[in-house]
Amino acid sequence: MKRPGNVITTYLGAFTLLLCLYSIRGDYCEVNHCFNGATCVTGLGDDPFICICADGFGGDTCNLTEIGPCSPNPCRNDGSCEVIAPTRRGDVFNEYVCKCQPGFEGVHCQINVNDCANQPCKNGGTCRDLDGDYACQCLSPYVGKQCQLRCISLLGMEGGAIVESQISASSVHYGILGLQRWGPELARLNNQGIVNAWTSASHDRNPWIEINMQKKMRLTGIITQGASRMGTAEYIKAFKVASSFDGNSYVTYKGDNQRRDKVFVGNTDNDSTKTNLFDPPIVAQYIRIIPVVCRRACTLRMELVGCELNVYSNTAGCSEPLGMKSRLVSDGQLSASSTFRTWGIDTFTWHPQFARLDKAGKTNAWSPAHNNRSEWIQVDLEKTKRLTGIITQGAKDFGVVQFVSVFKVAYSNDGELWSTVKDENTDNDKLFQGNIDNNTHKKNLFEPPFYARYIRVIPWEWHERITLRMELLGCDD
Ligand SMILES: *[C@@H]1O[C@H](CO)[C@@H](O)[C@H](O)[C@H]1NC(C)=O
Ligand SMILES: *[C@@H]1O[C@H](CO)[C@@H](O)[C@H](O)[C@H]1NC(C)=O
Ligand SMILES: *[C@@H]1O[C@H](CO)[C@@H](O)[C@H](O)[C@H]1NC(C)=O
Ligand SMILES: *[C@@H]1O[C@H](CO)[C@@H](O)[C@H](O)[C@H]1NC(C)=O
User: Fold this and answer.
1) Under the GO molecular function aspect, what terms does this record hold (predicted)?
2) Is 372 close to ligand 3, i.e. is its CB under 6 Å away?
3) Is the pLDDT of residue 13 over 50?
4) Please, which pLDDT band fits residue 93 given cuts at 50, 70 and 90?
5) Confidence at 397, pLDDT banded by 50, 70, 90
6) 373 lines ligand 3 (CB under 6 A)
7) Fewest C-beta in 10 Å: which of 28, 326, 440, 475?
8) Whose CA is nearest to atom 3 of ligand 3?
9) Ligand 2 atom 2: residue of nearest CA
10) Of ligand 2's atoms, which has the minimum distance to the CA of residue 228?
11) Where exactly are the structural domains of the chain?
């Protein structure tokens, strides 16, 4: 992967705002007095109208061409232009130099570097090129930034690490006048004996067996096995899997097909084992096996395959940018309580989709319609990730420095029920110290880190207007 130098410069568009003083009255913008694609605005203070010029134009009515090597900006992809002392390189006369954002190169930053060129994803993972970064989609059971780790531990049904109290079921079959209890705690792979598996009660129309792993784990597969009762094979021929973070709300596993529940093919006899992989893996604390088709009775012995979520030993190992800047987080994943428009002009809308660290341009951050503590910006990471920190940054609106100086952070797994990050010592909502100017990156760590799919930043104090660019830090685990 090619990484450009670590100088990050933000190009705040050379923007000319000129006030015109004309002694005429009426709706002055009805006839557009502004040239070259400029926007005409009335109703601002005492001035009858003003022209907001497009890049590269100036003068009261934007009829003058601003001339200079950096105006209009010749650099593409948010690159910043710097005027330099004229130099001669071969036959080419240089007056400016473009400083490119990470992921772009070329004289005018016109080349999007292919961060996948060196095939960073191992073990069959698929690479996606981002702006200055890449993302690997791993094949199960591989995990990690580069799919370099194997997530294949046996979680302890057979070995006993999962204890009886962690296993429950919708019902239990009692055999031979109620003397044999085919309880869920027996559902262990290769369990021996006459009564050696879980069987649901024959009247149970919606049977399930559940394992509470006591903390969130990553599951990459399941091994199932039937059993024989009184000389006859009993097993689950087909089943579904559901999972939950809290033991209350469950989602049925759908695999890559988002429309239909995935039905796994189970066993065909009383003893052989069948392994199914979860691709993509399941991250959950509770896992339920839901028999769909059973032979004679729903009888099961099983093992779970997976690994601890926290394969990184410390926070430092889990502090990758989660994709605000690189655009791994797409525009559709960003939303906000409201958006501000400078002078009510659509072209100058401060969308939540602009809240990307180091974004350049005239409107290059999120700003809400009102400046009070009810406003928020939300990131939907689309799956649960481990969050370890946040970087925030302010911006300028037509030369006015604006930023969020104090903020809160809330998170959620369903987008409905929210928890606010608390201060470890006081147990009050944690107030994060934010920015002090229009451009510096301010980093805050989440201590302890948390797991969430949805994250909200709630501005608490600000300078001029609530204005925010940001990046989230964490990892897939
Ligand atoms: C630009 O417009 C102003 C009046 O609005 C006029 O005086 C001036 O001559 C114009 N300049 C050019 C280059 O057209
Ligand atoms: C159960 O499986 C074992 C080993 O495959 C086989 O020998 C036995 O016949 C089977 N019993 C029944 C009842 O199917
Ligand atoms: C924030 O402003 C909006 C619009 O003026 C208002 O509806 C809302 O109640 C305000 N919230 C607070 C906490 O002041
Ligand atoms: C805004 O940030 C830029 C880049 O760091 C800096 O050069 C400039 O002085 C800042 N503007 C103000 C008004 O602080």
Assistant:
1) calcium ion binding; signaling receptor activity
2) yes
3) no
4) low
5) confident
6) yes
7) 440
8) 370
9) 271
10) 13
11) 33-66, 154-308, 320-475
pLDDT for the residue numbered 477 = 66
Burial tier of 45 (Cβ tally within 10 Å: 0-12, 13-18, 19+): exposed
- Give the CATH number of domain 33-66: 2.10.25.10
- What's this model's pTM, rounded to 2 decimal places? 0.64
| pLDDT attached to residue 18 | 35
Spacing, Cα 58 to ligand 1 middle (Å): 10
CATH 3.40.50.300 fits 320-475, yes or no: no
- CATH code of 154-308, in short, is 2.60.120.260
- What is the share, in percent, of the chain residues with pLDDT greater than 90? 57
Task: Quote the pLDDT of residue 149.
Answer: 86
Q: Which of 52-66, 88-102, 435-449 holds the top average pLDDT?
A: 435-449
pLDDT tier for residue 339 given thresholds of 50, 70 and 90: very high
Q: Does residue 6 carry a pLDDT above 50?
A: no
For the CA of 57, the nearest ligand: 1
Domain 154-308 and domain 320-475, same fold? Reply is yes
DSSP H helices in 213-344: none
- Tell me the CA–centroid distance for residue 176 and ligand 2, in Å: 21
CA of 372 to the centre of ligand 3 (A): 6
Ligand 4 contact, 438 CB (< 6 A): yes
Q: What is the pLDDT of residues 218-241, one digit of tens each?
A: 999 999 999 999 899 999 999 999
Render pLDDT for 115-170 as a digit per residue (tens, 0 to 9): 999 899 999 999 999 888 898 988 888 988 888 888 999 999 999 999 999 999 99
Ligand 2 proximity of 273 Cβ (cutoff 6 Å): no
Give yes or no for residue 9 CB within 6 A of ligand 4: no
Is the shortest distance between the CB of 443 and ligand 3 below 6 Å?
no
Asked if residues 408 and 377 have their Cβ atoms less than 8 Å apart, the reply is no
Q: Which residues contact 236 (CB under 8 A, 6 or more apart)?
A: 224, 226, 266, 267, 289, 291, 292, 293, 294, 295, 298, 299, 300
Taking the centre of ligand 3 as the mean of its atom positions, its distance from the CA of residue 410, in whole angstroms, is 19
Nearest CA to ligand 2 atom 5: 271
Cβ atoms of 316 and 253 closer than 8 Å: no
